[in-house]
Recover the amino acids of this structure.
């Protein structure tokens, strides 16, 4: 399993159960807990909240060096080992960087750049995009790209898909499909509503498919030699990259996913001075991005990015106000109506998976007037993902999330281009390679289908 609970360390406090959105944590109070794999959506919120840890002074438990190996962690890791953890894939990345036959490519999600610095003593929510690019280049990656680019690409496909569904009045409302834990939940709990999910792959998987096709052509390398690494704030992205259908390039589109915390382990292991690293930019063209792509890191961001582009594609006019505060969701459900030309678009932003069931039941019973719904499993979106730096003290959690969110919105505001459809490199990608949104090639590479997992539960 990707997410696990170490029974030797677990104290049975059941804090993990209190944050699990699907009741997958099982066990009595005071006894070691276990995870029901059929229910689990691999969101990693149990990993985030767990406070029971192993001490090197305890003589009756497995030695820490053995536990590190069992978890796939580097022996240089010095942080406490908590009971709830995710399997670590850093060694796979190190091996790929040593293999000179491989063309190594890395992408970084927007939420990583506003959290990574916390593991190096910088202020909560520090934006370190240029340090991040510098670190990854120092590690030896051949290409340092950005998931923000493919977030813009996702908006082109998802926005076009939404417009098509609204004009044809088919399979509404449409749900976003960026969050793999949410997708897994739908497959397990509500497979009869899978047609409402956008067919778009997530930005991570779109990027992987483009890196091994268009990107390989740019660099004049054979696709089979491209090794694609993804740095994500999310533990479920590890599950997503291993899905059988994620091979539009003809190969596994993303070879390995590491979390923000795992990247911090690797930086420390390689003795890279994060604080003083020379700042650099992500590589062009697959590292170009807009402010809209940046917003994917926080709840409501996908919705806002989609509306910025969707409004202008439908009306052929500039959007009156690019900052759409009405969809900047908090915990729970945020509903709003957006006037898009002659269309009144009813939208909802859902943060925290536990809040989606009433909406799904309304849809099943034909009681919904919504057109578009963004769903993020984690309580504040990707900034609070299971793979982000742990915030041990509850008193600092809100501050961390607020600061990370603020940094993303500030970054969006500072970008010279803030609408996905105005990204010059995205336009070039369509002109030279994809053709058009929802076209034959883009459908093959950037879209997918999902199937019921209910029978396995």
């Amino acid at each position: 399993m990707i997410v696990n609970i170490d029974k030797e360390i677990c104290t049975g406090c059941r804090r993990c159960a209190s944050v699990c959105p699907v009741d997958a944590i099982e066990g009595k109070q005071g006894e070691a807990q276990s995870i029901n794999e059929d229910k689990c959506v691999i969101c990693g919120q149990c990993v985030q909240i767990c406070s029971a840890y192993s001490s090197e002074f305890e003589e009756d438990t497995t030695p820490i060096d053995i536990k590190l190996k069992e978890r796939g962690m580097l022996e240089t890791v010095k942080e406490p080992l908590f009971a709830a953890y995710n399997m670590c894939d850093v060694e796979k990345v190190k091996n790929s960087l040593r293999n000179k036959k491989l063309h190594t490519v890395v992408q970084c999600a927007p939420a990583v750049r506003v959290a990574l610095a916390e593991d190096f003593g910088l202020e909560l929510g520090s934006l370190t995009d240029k340090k991040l690019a510098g670190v990854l280049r120092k590690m030896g990656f051949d290409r340092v790209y950005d998931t923000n680019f493919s977030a813009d690409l996702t908006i082109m496909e998802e926005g076009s898909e939404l417009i098509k569904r609204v004009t044809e009045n088919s399979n509404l409302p449409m749900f976003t499909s960026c969050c793999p834990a949410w997708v897994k939940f739908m497959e397990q709990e509500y497979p009869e509503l899978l047609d409402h999910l956008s067919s778009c792959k997530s930005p991570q998987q779109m990027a992987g498919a483009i890196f091994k096709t268009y990107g390989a052509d740019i660099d004049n390398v054979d696709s089979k030699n491209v090794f694609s690494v993804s740095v994500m704030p999310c533990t479920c992205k590890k599950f997503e990259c291993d899905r059988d259908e994620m091979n539009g390039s003809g190969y596994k589109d993303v070879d390995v996913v590491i979390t923000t915390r795992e990247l911090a382990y690797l930086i420390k292991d390689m003795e890279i001075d994060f604080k003083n690293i020379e700042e650099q930019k992500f590589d062009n063209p697959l590292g170009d991005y807009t402010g809209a792509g940046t917003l994917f890191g926080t709840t409501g961001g996908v919705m806002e990015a989609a509306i910025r582009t969707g409004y202008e594609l439908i009306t052929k006019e500039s959007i009156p106000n690019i900052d759409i505060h009405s969809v900047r969701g908090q915990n729970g459900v945020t509903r709003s109506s957006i006037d898009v030309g002659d269309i009144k678009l009813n939208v909802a932003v859902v943060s925290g998976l536990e809040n989606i069931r009433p909406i799904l039941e309304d849809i099943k019973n034909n009681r919904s007037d919504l057109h578009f719904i963004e769903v993020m499993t984690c309580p504040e979106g990707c900034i609070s993902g299971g793979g982000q730096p742990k915030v041990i003290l509850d008193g600092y959690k809100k501050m961390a999330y607020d600061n990370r969110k603020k940094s993303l919105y500030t970054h969006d505001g500072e970008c010279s281009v803030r609408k996905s459809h105005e990204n010059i490199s995205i336009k070039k990608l369509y002109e030279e390679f994809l053709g058009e949104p929802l076209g034959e090639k883009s459908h093959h590479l950037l879209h997918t289908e999902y199937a019921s997992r209910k029978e396995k539960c």
Notes: The radius of gyration is 21 Å. The mean pLDDT is 94. The longest helix spans residues 147-168. The CA atoms of residues 103 and 226 lie 5 Å apart.
